[in-house]
Amino acid sequence: MRTVAVVIFCFNRPAELRKLIEALAQYKPRKVLIVADGPRSGVPSDFQKCKEVELLYRNLPWDCQVQYNVAQTNLGLKERFSSGLKWSFEIVDKAIILEDDCIPDPSFFTFAQEMLERYEFDETVGMVQGWSAYKSIPIPQDFYFSNRPKVWGWATWGRVVQGFDVDIPFWYKIDQVKLLKSKGFPAFQIPGIRAKINSANQVNTWDYQWVAYLWSKGYSSIAPKRPLIRNIGFGEDATHTKTDFGGYSQRAGSLSEPYSASPAPYGVGRIIDKSENLVSLARWIKGALLNPRTAFRLIYARLRKLGGSVHGS
Questions:
Q1: Phi, psi of 288 (to 5 degrees)
Q2: Which 8-state DSSP code applies to residue 58?
Q3: What domains sit in the chain, N to C, each tagged with a CATH number?
Q4: How many C-beta atoms surround the C-beta of residue 187 within 10 A?
Q5: Any idea what DSSP says for residue 202?
Q6: Are 240 and 20 in contact (CB under 8 A)?
Q7: What confidence tens digit (pLDDT) does each residue in 45-79 have?
Q8: Residue 284's pLDDT band (cuts 50, 70, 90)
Q9: Local structure of 154: helix, strand or coil
Q10: Rounded to the nearest 5°, which phi and psi values hold at 208?
Q11: Backbone region of residue 116 per phi and psi (left: phi > 0; alpha: psi in -120 to 50; beta: other values)
């Protein structure tokens, strides 16, 4: 089965990449595309770490076809991801996409490949995600359609990527509030989401832009009923996710084949999406009770960021 290409995005974290490669070795994809960013000027440690990373991706421990897109200097997360994504889909028409800190359960590969093939020509579906906010959802189906795309281990098609511009020029021309209401967001949450997306281009990221693009096109994401990805990237060397305050680095679960023939009913998916707010809030409260000083620091940083993005928009 291993016919779908895997795209690996990496930079300067050899320990995380080594664990990802160990997970991939269980699946042995036949085609691998490497997208690597270069060292930052003025950060001497980057040069050694990037060399260690290169040694890993140049010596994958299984037989496969590998193509490389390696930046000689640092492009930054936003530009490196955007250019690497476009390059990848000039080569393949569908792919599984993994950053170096997203460690998949073996069942993620078969799940993603089957969903990519099953929904390849469905213009209402934009991606397949591997991460879920829940340890397990009590539904008989293995998956549902979600309006809350998650990009910690995911897959998509060239038909979706070809319309993506990381600068999202459309976002500033549409009725943002109307769009977000149509996706089921409550009124109190909309200002924060708008602020995050409006400031995304300034904070060197790509994920908020990708999600906004999917929303604007009316794309849903295929979501598993339990997480198939574990994120191990929290820490001081991360670009953005320095603190796992919500318990997001939980161990991945597993799904067994054959996967259900149809998703959970549309209404069930909407209920699951809306309930994620309560799950996130509960995790945050738990984290705040265990570490109030970190909670205060995070709240203060978020208020400063939102305040700057609102006044600067």
A1: -65, -40
A2: T
A3: 1-100 (3.90.550.10), 102-229+257-313 (no CATH)
A4: 9
A5: G
A6: no
A7: 999 999 999 999 999 999 999 999 999 999 999 99
A8: low
A9: strand
A10: -60, -40
A11: alpha
